Amino acid sequence: MASHLLVTKSMSGERISFDTNVFFYSIDPDAETKGEMALNIFELADPRRSFVTLQCLGELCFSVAKKRPALLDRAYRTVSDIQAFFPVVAAENVDLTRAIQANQQHTLSFWDAMLWATCDRSACTILLTEDFQDGRTLGGVTFRNPFTMSVPELEALLS
């Protein structure tokens, strides 16, 4: 497992992570526009400035098995590719404690809170997701919906 300590901030000053939905759209042939945007995100993302949580990789496998089982082999290959390209950060005990607090105080679902806590501990400044309110900041993490951003905006963020 790659160390999250190797990840640096991007030229835009941001340290980026991704929610499961970005990975899901990248392999779903029915997600035409979002799928193209997700693939563009991964082409632009610099692994020295981005990381992935282990939780998201597990969620990808679970979501694909549940919603699109015919794509499961593709999901497994994608997980392997992601692990080879991006540093992977696992949750720690402190993340669970903070996730429970965020779940209670900020009305986040438990798994969204767990993702946020792991990202926040890992000095993530931007979490690309469509599951949170776009532009909301919690701790040091700002949630951005990449599917509402223009390509130039994404390029500026990820470069």
List keywords for this structure.
159 residues, six-stranded mixed sheet, 7 helices
H/E order of the elements?
A: EHHEHHEHHEEEH
Number of domains: 1
Strand content: 5-15%
Give the name of the CATH architecture. Answer: 3-Layer(aba) Sandwich
Percent in helix: 40-55%
Can you list the strand order of the major beta sheet?
Answer: 3-2-1-4-6-5
Task: State the helix count.
Answer: 7
End-to-end Cα distance, whole Å, is: 24 Å
Structural class: alpha/beta
Task: Walk me through this protein's architecture.
- The protein is an alpha/beta fold and 159 residues long.
- It has a single domain (4-158), classed as Rossmann fold, CATH 3.40.50.
- Helix content is 52%, strand content 11%.
- It is built from 7 helices and 6 strands; from the N terminus they run βααβααβααβββα.
- A 6-stranded mixed beta sheet has the order 3-2-1-4-6-5.
- β5 (137-138) and β6 form a beta hairpin.
- α1 (20-27) crosses α2 and α3 runs antiparallel to α4 (72-85).
- It is globular, with a radius of gyration of 15 Å.
- The model is unreliable at 1-11 (pLDDT under 50).
Task: Give a quick summary of the entry.
By secondary structure, the protein is of the alpha/beta class. 52% of the residues lie in helices and 11% in strands.
